[in-house]
Amino acid sequence: MSNSFLDRTWKEIEPAVHVILGDEKNSSLDSFMYTQTYTKVYDYCTAASSRRPAASSVGGGPGDGSVRLVGGELYARLKTYLKHYLENLKQKEGESFLQFYIRTWERYLIGSTRLNDVLDYINRYWVTKERGDGHREIYDILSLCLLSWRDYKFHTNLDILMSEIMEQIRDQRLNKIESIGNLSVAIKSFVLLGFDVNDLKKQNLSVYINDFEKSFLTETYNFYAEESQNFIKEYGVVNYLVKAEQRIEEELKRLEELNDHTRRPLNDCLNEVLITNHADVIRSELTPLLDQERYSDIRRMHHLLKRVPMTIDPLLQQFQAYIRQQGLNAVEELKLQLEAQQKEQSAVVEDDGKSKPKKGPAYDVDAKTYIQTLLKVYHKFQNVVKESFENNEAFVKALDSACQSFINYNPIATPKDKSKSKTPDLLAKYADEMLRKKPEDMSVDELMTVFKFIDDKESFEVWYRRFLSKRLMGSTMTPEDGEREELIIGKLRSANTQEYTNKITNMFNDIRVSRDLGTLYKETIMQEHNPKEYVSDLEPRILDSGAWQSIFNKSNESILLPPMLINTQEKFASIYQSKFPGRQLSWIWNRSKVELKANISKPGKPPFLFTVTLFQMAILYPFNEADTLSVAELLEATAAPVDVFKANIAPLVKNKLLVQNPPGEEAITKPHTTFTIVKEYTSKRIKVNFASGVKITDSKNEEKDTNTEIQMRHHGILKASIVRVMKARKHYKHEQLTSEVYKMIDRFKPTVADIKKAIEVLIDEQYLARDSEGTGYEYLS
Amino acid sequence: MSVRPATVKKFLEVTGTDSEEVAAFFLQRNQQKLTHAINDFFVNPQLAKNVKKEKVTVKIDPKVKEIFDQYKEPLPDALGKAYIGIDGTVRYISDLGYEPEDIAMLALAEFLECPSVGVFKEEPFVTNWSKVKCNTIEKMSDYVRNELAVKLAEDEEYFKKVYQYTYKFILEKNERNVPTETAVEYWNLMLPETYKPELETFVRFLRETDHKGITKDQWNMLYPFLKIYYEDNKLSNYDESQSWPVLMDSFHDWLLDS
């Protein structure tokens, strides 16, 4: 091979190469020079190849046989040239290194691409063959150019390059300069300078990641660590929330200038330095912001923190605790208010010098006020969840948990630590008031909102039935009232189970069936020989003792029926027994009422209509025969217990139907006291109600009775659940049993002691036995 | 014995069973309600098997029977069975050389399967003495002294068995619980001297809280409870979520308060 041919060729193409890569004068590359260079390279390669016979046969060429591919020498010359060229690029006066780098790189990149075209013949034949033979250190011309840049221009100046790039970015962050258009050219050069030696077409980000991204992230972290710290100190958290959001936006915009690989690490870096590191300080602002009702600031806080999900959990806890405390405060305030009112009232009464101080709790709780106090807190924070937390599910849950806690346990519902919550009672009372008085500011929806939070649903049901029994037994229910009752039952059923409302529904059925029985009775006596022997207007109430337990409690007071009612009672009993054979009918006299026509008006006036209790009727009946009767005689005639007698006769005396001698409360039950019926009764009204003056049960006992009924229900449910678990497990450890039973029961929250008591009862009844270790139980049946 | 003979009799009649224990078991399980107990018996027949103990045939020694006859009541009980009543019991115990308030007498009661205080039934009396070949008062006295009393002091499991049996023994018929004062008497009699201070505190608690009666479960669990209370005198490791009866939880609370 002739060196002179190579020298000549190189000398001919060198100026063109220089112009292509970019000379000092920025000469343009004309197409003539382009084709000329290409031809010269082609000539050299082909001529050099044909001049020497092939050493080995590599592929079949046309004409005279094989051709050895030439180009290595030219490649080597170019390589040396590139090194020299790059090392001699000069920084212009007044030009920063970065500007110099960007300027020369932009030009060099164009030049390299052109050069790759011009010398394409070498690429296509010689380079391809060499790389095919496994010479990985040989590259196509473009790659050779880039590698040369990397080795002679990039690596040697990396420090100053990076420091100037980072300085630029810093200036931007400090708002000193605006656009970074050119900067991105420099940054993108890092991407192009990464090579995969084995596959030149594959992008390799090693240079970008190692030489740029790492320091970029460190610098970013350091910059914002300092900035955020100072900012919070100077302007406070609320302003920082805006600032951080804005910074994140800016930095994400910067990603356009960077390789997409940086997106995730940059995100992580910003989240850590701007959010995670300050999460505690940011969150500590939640309480004051809630106090000041600055909901849009809270929204901003949530928006920022939400970028780092793990910072949300403590926020949720804080939010939940705050709501709970607000709920407790609201109830405490109400309690103090009620106590103060009570004190005021008793003070006024004391001034009169008449009344004795009242016993019992220091205040009465008005169900409506209480429930509305709870709801007010709930609605307030429901709004916060919407305004500030986009109704996010986790925050809705935190709200619910907080409400559940303070609604069931608060200074009014549970004045003592272990006392049973009064909220279910008060809610049932709320429902009762709503159904009876129908005020506009009470609604079924509000009832159901609180119901949802109540732990002890059983308690509510028992209380609800107690009030319902009064509504059903009391005055007549209009069809509209009935619809309202139905609506609530429907809602309770869908919020719970069919079974939950069974007893309530049965109570309505009982009333319906009773009405039918009344009709049947009427039809039956009309067919009797002498219908006059019976009471025609009988309104029987046949009630199931399970659902109507409140009415059955302590209602076994008996009397001698006035003779005129005995036929009626027997008739009705026989009708009932024939319709429902096998059912036991017990008579509850103290709930019965009678309407009497009394012919003791002034002459010429219509007779009075008296509404009296059955006991009052029994007391009045003997007065048909005598005008004056003693207590002893009346007690004998009625066989009523003394206290019942007293309660029933008092309204008759008070309303001046009977004249007591001697008068006074003390004398009312003394055997020799007498009662005389007035000859002519005077009243402004034709209808007089003596029955309403009779008290059946006082509220204190009612609460006790109801709580006993609830306790029995709880106990029954617990026993059933324990047996169900044990039946399946046969042998079970104590802890497992209690936790399974606890999970099973959703109608109320049993305490550990409740469960243990039920277990002990089952042991006593020999359904369970302790196992030999004493830490578990065996099922015996 | 003061079982409601009518219910037991009726139960045996209807079910065709001959075991009084089975009848008593089912009646107790059903709060002495006859129809429920009978129904329970037919629904859960396997329970009856647990009640009936396997009876090993033992050759009855007529001499033992003679001793029994010396003490027995002149008239049989409501079911027509012979038994030693309270007078016979006092004489028998004194002839054995013991006071009635001796812990060994509880072991004896357990050994002879006494259904309640002051009653020895013929069948277990004769069978069990014959089984261990004691046919004179002297041999019986020796057996109590050298076998039962020794075993009671040395064999923890046996002690537990006698302790648990004692509840049944002292439970008055038709009562659901043993009155607290009775239970306390027997605890003082039975429980090891080591636990006396702990027992005293526990009894003080029962009295202060005016506790009315001790259930079988509370009785059974007191012994293991005293053990842990003895080892941990402030009950600082006591855990209410464990399976201790609620009574022990209340005691724990009481102890913390005082």
TrEMBL record, chain A:
Instruction: Enumerate the Gene3D superfamilies for this protein.
Output: Cullin Repeats, Cullin, Chain C, Domain 2, Winged helix-like DNA-binding domain superfamily/Winged helix DNA-binding domain
Domain Cullin family profile as annotated: residue spans: 422-653
Q: Which residues cross the membrane?
A: none
SMART domains assigned to the protein according to its UniProt record, in alphabetical order? CULLIN (SM00182), Cullin_Nedd8 (SM00884)
What biological-process GO terms show up in the record? ubiquitin-dependent protein catabolic process
The record's keywords, sorted A to Z, are: Coiled coil
The record's PROSITE patterns line, in alphabetical order, gives:
CULLIN_2 (PS50069)
Q: Which GO terms describe its molecular function?
A: ubiquitin protein ligase binding
A Pfam family found in this protein is Cullin_Nedd8
* Regions annotated as coiled coil: 324-351
Instruction: List the InterPro entries.
Output: Cullin (IPR045093), Cullin-like_AB (IPR059120), Cullin_homology (IPR016158), Cullin_homology_sf (IPR036317), Cullin_N (IPR001373), Cullin_neddylation_domain (IPR019559), Cullin_repeat-like_dom_sf (IPR016159), WH-like_DNA-bd_sf (IPR036388)
> What SUPFAM superfamilies is this protein classified in?
Cullin homology domain, Cullin repeat-like, Winged helix' DNA-binding domain
Q: What family is it from?
A: Belongs to the cullin family.
Name of the protein: Cullin family profile domain-containing protein
Per the UniProt record, the source organism is Pichia angusta (Yeast)
UniProtKB/TrEMBL annotation, chain B:
Q: What is this protein called?
A: Defective in cullin neddylation protein
Q: What is this protein for, i.e. what is its function? A: Neddylation of cullins play an essential role in the regulation of SCF-type complexes activity.
Q: Which residue intervals define the domain DCUN1 in the entry?
A: 59-256
Q: Which organism is it from?
A: Pichia angusta
* InterPro entries reported for this sequence: DCN-prot, DCN1-like_PONY, PONY_dom
